[in-house]
């Protein structure tokens, strides 16, 4: 308001200044004319009176304009101060009306990034922040929709794998069962027929393994891969796995031996699952190693855990292969794996299973010399009372 | 020799199991679902089976549901649940039904015969 007055005041002052200059100029003209008449000796008294009057008149005009100048300067100063104050007030108002919504946006972004997809901001304030808020909400809604779609797809995938695995298992049971039935009367088959049935059986077992692996992975992805840990002796666990592999390694004239440290403490594991891991490591060692190779299983206590190492003197792996060996569908050298019956999922599942136990799994290898896979398993804490689930799981 | 009742909705699997069990010398009775299992168990004309092998998932009435009914009716016969995968076992184990054991498909017959021998001894 004051600023407006100041502007009007300055305009009025400029007009007054113009009037003053015009009036002063006219006064000089009158005085000069009077002086000319005085110089010409024409009625000197009257001329002098005019000169004095004009001088007084100009003095009055000057006093007037000086006053006006002072007032205008004051007015302009006040206007300026008022204007600046107003601007400052307006600005701080602007800032504070932007700050709240912006702070809210920052907080909401944090929550959204943290996974709370329900997060929305209140839309309000200045049109700019309101637009920003609306855009944020739109983005959050879209994110939520996509996350929902993705979850739905994930669920569908898991359901599909579960159903497929279930539906495929019945016909596989028949194929494997009847092939086994044929093999029971092997002496009635020609050797060519027996070989054929053996091939059917091999492939059926491979399919079953693939199904089991896929199912485990689907469970693992869905967070449904569960274990029932119980105090378990290491020696029977290792011996059980070795026994399972014995016929296969003997068929390839491979040496399979185990070395189990005396007085190992019990480990806290799901027996079936760790057996699965060991059989898987032994199967890899068996399948990737040539005929006549040596496969060793060693169990020992290491840094408060029990380490089970499976070594072979097979072809080994290069550094870049080793890096990806625990990823799904990763296998060693493609040329080498042509004849290998693995699913490419075994190590990924083994890793999930060992980690589910709170253990670790790792591999070292030297190309041309062989590989060693090490599994570290947690030692069963001294059987304390009040752990009913373990006692139950052990029965 | 022991009498075994097997229930599965797949005729092929019934044939497979019947053949293998008969080769082992067992007497075999078959049922296509849980409803037939209940009917067979209520029949007094034939001798009661010594052990039941029930498929976990069957139309009309699942093996687990049939087992629950039988146990509620006071039937104490040992029962092995045959299932296509672990999840069903977990589901079965979570219920309060008393099961003698679980067999997974594809069936490991050596293991199955060992279980039957132990439970019917």
In words, what does this structure look like?
The complex is a heterodimer of chains A (395) and B (121). With 395 residues, chain A is of the alpha+beta class. Chain A folds into 3 domains: 109 residues; 103 residues, Helix Hairpins; 165 residues, Histidine kinase-like ATPase, C-terminal domain (Heat Shock Protein 90, 2-Layer Sandwich). Chain A is 66% helix and 11% strand. In chain A, α1 packs antiparallel against α2, α5 packs parallel to α6 and α6 packs antiparallel against α9. The longest helix of chain A has 70 residues. Chain A is rod-shaped. The C terminus of chain A is likely disordered. Chain B has one domain: 3-Layer(aba) Sandwich (Rossmann fold). Chain B contains 5 helices and 5 strands; from the N terminus they run βαβαβαβαβα. Chain B has a 5-stranded parallel sheet with strand order 2-1-3-4-5, with helices on both faces. In chain B, α4 links the parallel β4 and β5. In chain B, α2 runs parallel beside α3. The termini of chain B are close together. The chains are: A alpha+beta (395), B alpha/beta (121). Chains A and B meet through α3 and α4 of A and α1 and α4 of B.
Shape of chain B: globular
User: What is the level 1 CATH name of the largest domain in chain A?
Assistant: Alpha Beta
Mean pLDDT of chain A: 84
The shape of chain A, in one word, is: rod-shaped
For the sheet with most strands of chain A, the description reads: 5 strands, mixed
Question: Which chains share the greatest interface?
Answer: A-B, 21 and 18 residues
